[in-house]
Amino acid sequence: MNTRTLIITFVWMIMSNIGICAQEHWDAQERIELNKGVFPKNFSKAIDAIQYDLLGIERGKSHVKVIDNNTLYINLSFSLKNSVQQGDWRIAVKPDFLPSFHWAPHLTPTDRNVIDQHVFRSPALIVADDHQTLILIPDLDIMQKGTPVRWYMDMDASSNTLILGMCNNHVSEHVLFERNQETTYPKGDIEIGFYLMYSDSKEVLRNPFKKPLEFMWSRWGHTAYVKGNPVKESLEKYVQHTYNWAFNSWSENVWQQFELDGNKVGAPVFIVNVTQSPNYPGEINEREFRSIWNQAWFSSLRSASGLYRYARRTGNRELFAKANLTKELALSFPQRNGFFYGLIGTEMHEVEIDGKKYNRSKGWNTYYWGNSNRNPYTWNPKESPYHILDMSWTALLMLRWYDELEKDARLLAYAEDYAMALLGIQYENGFFPGWLDLKTMQPMNHLNASPETSLSVTFLLKLYELTHKEEYKRAAFRAMNAVIHEIIPVGKWEDFETYWSCSRYGSDNLVGKKVLRNNMHKQNNFSMFWTAEALLECYRLTSNKEYLDYGQRTLDELLMTQASWQPPYMYVNVLGGFGVLNADGEWNDSRESLFSELIIQYGKLLDKPEYIERGYAALKASFVMMYCTENPQTKQQWEKVHPFFASEDYGFMMENYGHGGRTNPAGEGMGEFTIYDWGNGAAAEAYNRILDKFGKIE
Fold first, then answer.
1. Which of 117, 460, 485, 598 would you call most buried, defined as having the most Cβ atoms within 10 angstroms of its Cβ?
2. CA 668, 618, 531, 412: dihedral to nearest 10 degrees?
3. Can you tell me the mean pLDDT for 289-318?
């Protein structure tokens, strides 16, 4: 009888004084024989070998199960008579072809690095050449039972190896993971398993993310979602907490109202921390300079549009007035040749109280205009350059306010003045510059051919929709085609956050380049969102399916950064929440509130229930980090780190969870501040917007 054999090679590894070395190779190999008629024939050209390190095994077994013609399940289990110490234990899968495309959820720039289980949101390793795709997915059922040693993955493009392993590791950089020199594998039973998916279809080659996403959501995500993860309560309660927190219990420190040139303006402040709680027992120490932003993350205008919707729906005149004060503030930002600033800030100083120094604002009478200091050039907002991305986002929000909320002609005029300036700086290749020098207004040296351009595409198409001026449409499509050809095929998802926020790894030598060991760029999912949104708008305007196909591929790459399950080592609900970078540690990042509507839109257009569930899960996840009785697990975690919290703090919400790469039951990973425009206010805006557009949210 013809058989096909999958060879698993056992290698005994120990720790020595000089590191990991092979002490002994077993001559015997375990052969798993399956009937050729059952075994998926394609795997003979997909896998060269699967091998793993043996440890001190008393007894062990392994088996392969055929899930379908394109999917294998491989499980290894063994028992350790005594605990074993060694540096690493791994299963190595070597494809029998040379991939040109590689994807992993995290970077491992050196052999010391691993992809720790902390970042297993939708965990997979994906490789492909021009003809075939191979995907490895860890068995999350085993992980949900708890594992005696932390699991990890690794993808070494240089040696053409996909790895699933177990080892202790530590956080380095912000945030990468490095294996420890020694790991103790405890006495007892150990099990590990994974799925291998293979395809030679052109559809999978065009979009290698669709199959693993469908597999993980159908196997783990959907079940958890229908059981009530990430939240069970009505989202209206969370929105009420948000606005009570911002405009009542914390209003003294959150709401800012002042005059500019005789006009009343106002908005919630950029950031507050726990020292500004009415229940904090000590002195206030402001975390950053007091300011209000209209930037790609922190957009007071976006939050105000949500407040406007809520006030209109509930008949709350006070909140309606506050929303309009924030609109007035946005219109007060001075334009220079069409371009405009991204924030307004106050001067700061230190005050000394009982021998201790505290950071305080000098007040709004010391205001100045500035730009986001998350850039390659300076941390000083007064000196920071104009950021095209931030201006296009604010101008787009003005158009959406004009179109969906009220026909304030000033909003359209302001946005069109900016649009004319934007057209004047578009490059011949279609891209828009990243930053403009504050003095000369000339393009600077970074991100002049990046997916930040995609947000300007969406803005220009919205302006075309409202004005029917062809020049806006022509410029938008030229820009979109540049992103399609230069960014999407190689995953060059570089934007301001990729290198110039908290994760600065590679900012000195990786911009525009790949990490060679992984054959991947450092990536941020923010630019995936802008691009998927722009492509959807291009499709709506043209009905050209090519735009929709590219849009879905980009959306699926974005969704690979969304949590498709609930790990037992996350101590708040995380299903549907998003990470950020392939070199950072966040779960439940506030961007999920921004992403949610787009995911639902794709779901409705493509009649894809998975997307609709994922979109609503993202919206619900954006409220998980809120301190309130509706989130009992989260509330308990908050009180472990800030025991003075009480009912006046309901609505306080950190922008993410587990940012530092670790969590524990004692509250590690919780944080200590709220950014209204990238936290509770942003989540409330998304809820109000989606409620208006799609109706009741179950």
1. 460
2. -110
3. 98
Residue 202: CB partners within 8 Å, gap ≥ 6?
none
Are the beta carbons of 688 and 319 closer than 8 angstroms? no
Q: What are phi and psi of 209, to 5 degrees?
A: -95, -20
The per-residue pLDDT of the chain, averaged, comes to 93
Q: Which amino acid is at 178?
A: E
Can you give 515-533 as a three-state secondary structure string?
ECCCCEECCEHHHHHHHHH
Torsion angle of C-alpha atoms 243, 245, 251, 252, degrees rounded to 10 = -170
User: Is 336 within 8 Å of 330 (Cβ atoms)?
Assistant: no
Give the whole-angstrom CA distance, residue 287 versus residue 584. 22
537 pLDDT exceeds 60? yes
* Greatest alpha-carbon span in the chain: 91
pLDDT tens digits, one per residue of 87-139: 899 999 999 999 999 999 999 999 999 999 999 999 999 999 999 999 999 99
**Tens of pLDDT along 628-665?**
999 999 999 999 999 999 999 999 999 999 999 999 99
3-class secondary structure, 16: strand
At 437, list the tokens.
């020098």
Q: Give the span between the Cα atoms of 177 and 180, in whole angstroms.
A: 9
Helix (H) or strand (E) holding 235: helix 235-244
CA angle (228, 234, 237) in 5-degree steps: 135
Q: How far, in Å, CA of 214 to CA of 618, rounded?
A: 16
Domain boundaries, given as residue ranges, for the chain: 40-201, 235-694
Answer whether CATH 1.10.3720.10 is correct for domain 235-694.
no
Pairing relationship of beta strands 3-16 and 47-53 according to DSSP bridges: parallel
Q: What is the pLDDT of residue 69?
A: 86
How confident is the model over 477-503, as a mean pLDDT? 98
> For residues 6 and 38, is the Cβ–Cβ distance under 8 A?
no
Cβ distance 172 to 503 under 8 Å?
no
What pLDDT is attached to residue 397? 99
Helices 609-621, 680-694: crossing angle, 10 deg rounding:
140
SS3 of 353-372: ECCEEEEEECCHHHCEEECC
Both tokens of 526, joined, read 């923010």
Q: How confident is the model at residue 48 (pLDDT cuts 50, 70, 90)?
A: confident
Q: What is the mean pLDDT of residues 453-470?
A: 98
